[in-house]
Amino acid sequence: xxxxxxxxxxxxxxxxxxxxxxxxxxxxxxxxxxxxxxxxxxxxxxxxxxxxxxxxxxxxxxxxxxxxxxxxxxxxxxxxxxxxxxxxxxxxxxxxxxxxxxxxxxxxxxxxxxxxxxxxxxxxxxxxxxxxxxxxxxxxxxxxxxxxxxxxxxxxxxxxxxxxxxxxxxxxxxxxxxxxxxxxxxxxxxxxxxxxxxxxxxxxxxxxxxxxxxxxx
Length: 217
Hints:
The protein has 217 residues and is an all-alpha fold.
């Protein structure tokens, strides 16, 4: 097992706090001490811009990953460029023909309107706290707290997000800390108390305990 002081190097695209977080978690948490070295060299990575990331999250709601990718591939061909202004010019029938439900079309239009009308303060997010950003995002139709939290983790790479509604985190904590017994939100918070201020990193490693392949949101 690699010592906490001998963590393998990470790429330039890794969050700046990643290795500090790993050292903290391995020192404070028995599960993390074993789990982190098993995934040496892997780390959280982001992709896309804010609008595209949120649009993909809406397209993927309540369908399989494979189906979501298929619909996204067709939808992505419609606008000349995947920007709010170009999405707002699309015809509803064309969006529906890409495989989008009427409700998802409404959600995507509302998302585009929020960005086009500066109802989300993208340029100010770096200075805003997590809850303020979540409040802005959940005002968009089709975006709930879980989606907003995934956005904070994967796009903004915020270090201390604890997505209590995430099924993967619930299952991972159950298996890693409670021998597979169901866990309550209060029990999840108790486990995560030693993770702070790096709950996002711990959550990412809990996901790896269930599926070693890292995901990009």
